[in-house]
Hints:
By secondary structure, the protein is α/β, with parallel strands linked by helices. It has helices spanning 15-18, 27-43, 54-61, 71-94, 107-111, 113-128, 144-149, 152-161, 198-204, 215-226, 242-247; strands at residues 8-13, 46-51, 100-105, 132-137, 166-171, 192-193, 232-236, 254-256.
Amino acid sequence: MENxxxxxxxxxxxxxTLTHKTGKVNIARMAKLVSVLADLHNMGHxxxxxxxxxxGIGMGRLNLAARPVETKELQALAAIGQGELMFMYDKxxxxxxxxxxxxxxxxxxxENADSRRHLLDTFNQLLDYGAIPIVxxxxxxxxxxxxxxxxxxxxxAVAALTNADMLIMLTDTDGxxxxxxxxxKNAQLIEYVxxxxxxxxxxxxxxxxxxxxxxxxxxxxAKIATEAGVPVVIANGAKPTKIYKIIDGKxxxxxxxxxxxx
Length: 262
């Protein structure tokens, strides 16, 4: 058997990647994403998936045409959709005989030393068992990601907590541009970012996607991870097979190099 350099990857997939413009689940893309992650697992790598999509699936289950605006409605939809979301992941990963697990928590868990340690122990034990942890914020209790982040910052925190080898964030844009590509047809993709400076943060602005997390929250997540020594790649999730190129070190999207404060 060929020896591999075993790595730990955190992959974050947002609502914009998991759903069509109608808000319904993009089943084909979700299935392809699962096949790629299962393949990485079969290669011997450790995979942690941070996923959004519970609200969208909840809307589908209730046949709602438009996303509600009241927080309590979004929380209820998340509660309805979360079970269905995990059912879909379990079914799809099960086709490749890969065990998955659900981890729902809120940011206050990460801020407490004891609970943070217990959470890390759980991650490590699940990975030792050969399972793929599937992470989402507990939106029925906490509303920060539900309203503002689409799990972006959560993925950065998970990558930092678990000392991942890389955080891969999949969205509906190709990466970070030097200006808004929807307004400037000559906007250029920035392939590499050595350090996230205020200038880089300003470039992110508030432009976003169909999820609640605009690009600014993705830069914030990248900053959390890179300051913990974890490299980050933000790329278009339309073709999940790009993940192979990313882990092989090929240029895809925007790569943020790790940086630790001395």
